[in-house]
Write a structure and sequence with these properties.
heterodimer, B: 740 residues, alpha+beta, elongated
Chain lengths: 105, 740
């Protein structure tokens, strides 16, 4: 199974520049890896106003805790919301903050 | 969070008839109701095409609201009986296949009353071990557990007894025969006082410990439950458990239920002397393999003795059974169409969608829109994006939940779609419309119902009048439901078809009918409906196809009809033989567009392209992936029955690497299954005439409908669709080409 190299700040930058894709072959592997993390604890979006506002939450277990978008971070741009999910999952999967990698890159 | 939701008792109402609406509120004590005609349900603020028309109705206005309960979870119930109330010594036994042992207490066979506790309960304890609980009605409750949690998804014979003479209670669990595994047998005894309850007997649940309803539902299968009025030895219970007919040759039997009888109904039958028959509730799955399934037979009708199990689920739901909040006597003057009751409470808003058809045999227009209500049911309250590990990589998205998804996470009692799995991992086979359905409404994502409102909005924009006929009408009446119409227009995704629907549509086309298949992935799965289970579809996803779950091997036959389930391409009427095209690929990121083919230059097809340039790109725009050919796309296949004279007048290009051949198109995986490399990944726009003067036009793409509204409905997808529709509504018969 593909594992993300947390040092690849170039892939973070590529996603940040074009969150809707299409992605390079290696960024495709990264995106797929982030989309294959366990559902529980995935960062996902809740559309709180159609086409206008999204909140980022972590998925609880099925049948578990309710989803609470109340105090969750809000985004008013779909691409910015996708970037936030990417960054959050990158940190979950690699254990490292992508902002840090961006600064290094 | 949702504050007001509801449903109605009929999805195919008739002008002049009556429909009941059932509403529940969560907090507010009042709600507003308003009847609307649904014209376009796309509420994206950048699209600017949402359109509904408020309609006068007596119920418009403020109503009292209250929270209505949902008694979800399947079970079977035997009415209270003097025979049961007179029990003293007893043995209760059943073969049990637990799918979630350890998920709290679960009732298997319970005859129980609370306050004071009385009766018996053969059950799983909180750790998943077999347990007997007895109550004497005088404050004493005794329990005895094996202390050995059952292995999940393995058969055990569970036996529990009470000896009225000694007061001894016994629980025993014995694993079924296994060659390569070893599971623990267990037996435990204790002393306990028992007094029979004068109460119904339940399978797979307890009566609720507080209030009405039920709780502690069992997930898994129960086979051959039996009750006797003596204490049986382990050997006796094992011998009885192995017997094909557990009621035979025993004078002491009180009841021996045979769940292989009356499959396809909601009845359960007792083969013992007391006729303690009962009924299932919330549609547990039947026609299920029992503990003794050999694999020699795949059809429950051929070997019922091996299909004696019922699979119960804590999250099954058939009819929510709510009280009616208000009714609507539909005026005979109300136009046929798609309608909804718009509910508002505080900041929240919901819709209850329903369909109004003309009186039977009395069309009011030349065109019928065939609303895919069976498919809407199949997708009702889908939650795969929340539960399926591979959903994001399958559909190439980051999960975006809607407010109703947040609501359903907190309220799983509203049930699932046929795309989901139950909490225990087994596939959902039933979906009902007799419950709030959150995604068959205006303002929801562009899939199934709401994608079809792009077509309704287009019809409105073009000033084209139409009647609405639903799938359920087609199922009940066959071709007669469509025969009065010069042309029939489908929705974007008419995926699920019962046999009567398929035969009815085929008969309509084979006559003088004209069908415009304005979608993709249509006419794919055989499903079933039955008067024995009103408001419900059943599905068995046999073999392969686009699906999020495998069907249980050995259970490919639909219990409601006894038919073999699965894809119509293998069941005698492939979609290619009906409408010329069938599904070849799916991809949800980027849609393609169409280019005219040499066959499109045939004079027979000239009417299709009037006003469209020979080399004009067709449909490189739209709300689903930015193109008219996408999501799920269909192509011709002569081997599967595309008529020999069919013209492929245009085909699509521009598909993405994430648009992949569907499973039923793949014999052997390879590395050219994608839309960039594989020539089979395309939608074929197809036209053919029929001998009766009718014709069929197919676009073969779900995304087509999402392109209609582009630039104020003024675009070449709109123009082409209009060209076809006008010709199909023209009385002039189509002429069949001369066959070579």
């Amino acid at each position: 199974m593909y594992e993300i190299d947390p040092a690849r700040a170039d892939l973070v930058r590529e996603f940040e520049a074009n969150p809707n894709g299409p992605y390079s072959p290696e960024l495709t592997l990264v995106v797929n890896r982030l989309r294959l993390m366990p559902i529980e604890d995935r960062h996902v979006l809740v559309c709180t106003r159609q086409g206008r506002e999204w909140a980022m939450v972590r998925m609880p277990a099925r049948g578990g805790a309710p989803i609470e978008p109340g105090d969750a971070p809000r985004f008013h741009d779909a691409e910015e919301a996708a970037r936030a999910v990417f960054r959050a999952r990158w940190k979950t999967v690699t254990g490292q903050d992508p902002e840090f990698q961006q600064a290094k890159g | 969070m949702k504050k007001v939701i509801g449903y109605c008792d009929d999805w195919s109402a008739v002008a002049g008839g009556k429909i009941d609406f059932k509403v529940s509120t969560y907090g507010p004590e009042r709600f507003e109701a308003q009847l609307v005609r649904v014209i376009c349900g796309d509420a994206h603020p950048d699209h600017g095409i949402f359109k509904e028309e408020e309609i006068e109705a007596p119920f418009n206005g403020t109503h009292d609201g209250w929270t209505q309960p949902v008694n979800a979870g399947s079970r079977a119930v035997v009415p209270a009986s003097p025979v049961l109330a007179g029990l003293e010594s007893f043995t209760v036994q059943a073969w049990v296949f637990a799918t979630t042992p350890g998920r709290g207490e679960q009732g298997i066979v319970t005859q129980w009353q609370e306050n004071p506790a009385r009766g018996f309960a053969l059950m799983l304890d909180k750790d998943g071990a077999a347990m007997l609980r007895v109550g004497d009605g005088a404050g004493q409750v005794a329990e005895v557990s094996t202390g050995l949690p059952l292995a999940a998804r393995r058969w055990y014979l569970l036996t529990a007894s009470h000896d009225a003479q000694s007061g001894q209670i016994t629980i025993r669990q014995t694993p079924g025969p296994t060659a390569l595994e070893k599971f623990s047998s267990g037996e435990a005894t204790a002393t306990g006082a028992f007094s029979a309850a004068d109460a119904p007997l339940h399978f797979a649940a307890f009566p609720a410990s507080a209030g009405d309803g039920h709780d502690r539902h069992f997930n898994g299968r129960i086979d051959r439950p039996r009750l006797s009025k003596v204490v049986q030895s382990a050997a006796e219970s094992s011998a009885i458990g192995a017997h094909t007919d557990p009621a035979q040759d025993h004078d002491d039997v009180v009841a021996a239920w045979d769940f292989s009888q009356a499959i396809g109904t909601q009845e359960i039958r007792d083969t013992g002397p007391n006729a303690l028959h009962g009924r299932t509730e919330n549609l547990p799955s039947r026609g299920c393999k029992g503990h003794n399934w050999t694999g020699q037979e795949q059809n429950f009708a051929h070997a019922p003795q091996e299909y004696g199990a019922i699979h119960f689920h804590e999250d099954d739901l058939h009819d929510a059974g709510w009280q009616t909040s208000f009714s609507y006597a539909i005026p005979s003057t109300l136009r046929s169409g798609v309608y909804a009751v718009r509910l508002r409470a505080g900041e929240d808003q919901s819709y209850i969608t329903f369909f109004v058809r003309p009186a039977k045999g009395q069309p009011t227009e030349k065109l019928a829109f065939l609303a895919s209500t069976v498919t809407y049911m199949a997708y009702a309250n889908y939650q795969w994006h929340q539960h399926q590990h591979f959903a994001e990589v399958t559909e190439d998205f980051w999960t975006v939940l809607q407010p109703v998804d947040v609501f359903m996470q907190k309220h799983p009692e509203f049930g699932l779609s046929t795309y989901d799995t139950h909490f225990d991992g087994s596939g959902v086979r039933f979906s009902s419309r007799l419950r709030p359905i959150f995604n068959a409404a205006p303002g929801t994502p562009y899939w199934s119902f709401n994608a079809d409102t792009h077509i309704l909005g287009w019809l409105d924009s073009q000033g084209i009048a139409y009647d609405v006929i639903t799938d359920e009408d087609l199922h009940r009446e066959g071709a007669a439901a469509l025969a009065p119409y010069r042309a029939v227009l489908t929705g974007a995704h008419p995926e699920y078809y019962t046999t009567p629907m398929m035969e009815g549509l085929h008969e309509y086309i084979a006559g003088a009918g004209r069908l415009i298949y304005l979608g993709g992935n249509g006419f794919i799965w055989r499903c079933a409906m039955s008067e024995a289970a009103p408001g419900v579809i059943e599905l068995r996803r046999a073999e392969d196809g686009i699906r999020y779950r495998d069907e249980e091997p050995g259970e490919y036959y639909l219990e409601l009809t006894g038919e073999y389930g699965g894809l119509w391409r293998r069941l005698g009427l492939p979609p290619q033989a009906l409408v010329g095209v069938g599904t070849v690929a799916v991809g949800f990121d980027v849609s393609g567009h169409y280019l005219r083919t040499p066959q499109g230059d045939d004079p027979r097809a000239a009417f299709i392209f009037e006003g469209i340039g020979r080399d004009e790109i067709i449909g490189d725009f739209g709300y689903l992936g930015g193109g008219a050919s996408g999501s799920e796309i269909d192509a011709v296949d002569p081997l599967l029955g595309t008529p020999t004279h069919a013209l492929v007048v245009a085909s699509s290009v521009g598909h993405s690497p994430n648009t992949l051949l569907c499973p039923d198109e793949i014999g052997f995986t390879n590395n050219v299954m994608d839309g960039v490399q594989n020539p089979k990944v395309r939608a074929d726009m197809t036209f053919f005439e029929t001998p009766g003067g009718g014709a069929v036009f197919s676009v073969g793409s779900i995304a087509w409908a999402g392109s209609l509204p582009h630039e104020g409905y003024d675009n070449n997808i709109s123009r082409l669709t209009g060209n076809v529709l006008r010709r199909f509504l023209d009385e002039t018969p189509f002429e069949m080409p001369v066959s070579s």
